Amino acid sequence: MSDIGMILDRIGRKLVTEVAPKLEGDYSGGHAAMSGLMSVMAGEAWDNAADRLVNEIAGLRGLLALGGKAVTVEASPGVKISDLTVERDALARDLIALQESLEAREDDEARDLNAKIWMHLMATAMARMPSPPDFPDAEE
Fold it and tell me: How many domains does the chain have?
């Protein structure tokens, strides 16, 4: 895990396991616990972002190639999250156009590729889901 991911994880765990249980009132403790949980999930998302985007880009390029679409979107100059996001978003716009044309057709090839597109979209949505943190029980 990168330093940022590790820092967010440690802050979150500290809030959930040590700070929230000591705060009085439902709102204060709940707010600290929720902030801690969000920090842990943000750390995980930060650590996985580049890998997830690279995989999404590869999937988008593959689907566009299967659809016979010439891809004019240039590859990112590096692996900065912001650069990868621009590339992914441009490819996603091309995929939307391809999918619109496929949904207007009724042949098996179009249905098959459309199903592959939906499988890709489902997989990318699942990859963005944070995993539940494994917090120990709060000390009384």
Answer: 1
